[in-house]
């Protein structure tokens, strides 16, 4: 038996299924802007960059269905279907872009993002 290395992880053999028993939601997302937008795996999708075009209200309390620490990039002109999962834990959303800043309530007043300014 070899000595243990501090911080070493010894995973069991087999496949790990991420979010296997969690409900999912798919939404079509477009980037009509002129710059790429990257969204991290645990960012509250409802609050992502306002240039991205999609049904925001259907994404309240959701995050990307990606492994922790990864991200999805939307290039200018991209349009793609993304899969989301509900945020876990106490379902409190604090920070991000400040749209919620508290517990997720099922019938909260929808947030209207500020207008997007384009510089000429």
Give the uncertain stretches in residue-range form: none
The CATH homologous superfamily of the domain at 25-103 is named Urease, beta subunit
Number of separate strands: 7
Give the C-alpha Rg: 18 Å
Individual helix count: 0
Which properties best describe this structure?
120 residues, mainly beta, Urease, subunit B, 3-stranded antiparallel beta sheet, 7 strands, 24% strand, globular
Gist?
With about 120 residues, this protein is mainly β. The protein has strands at about 25-30, 35-40, 60-65, 70-75, 80-85, 90-95, 100-105.
Architecture overview:
With 120 residues, the protein is mainly beta. It has a domain at 25-103: Urease, beta subunit (Urease, subunit B, Ribbon), CATH 2.10.150.10. The protein has no helices and 7 strands. Strands 1-5-3 form a 3-stranded antiparallel beta sheet, with no helix packed on it. A two-stranded antiparallel ribbon has the order 2-4. The mean pLDDT is 87.
List strands and helices in order, with pairings.
Blueprint lengths: L24 E6 L6 E4 L21 E3 L6 E4 L4 E8 L5 E2 L8 E2 L17
Antiparallel strand pairs: 1-5, 2-4, 3-5, 6-7
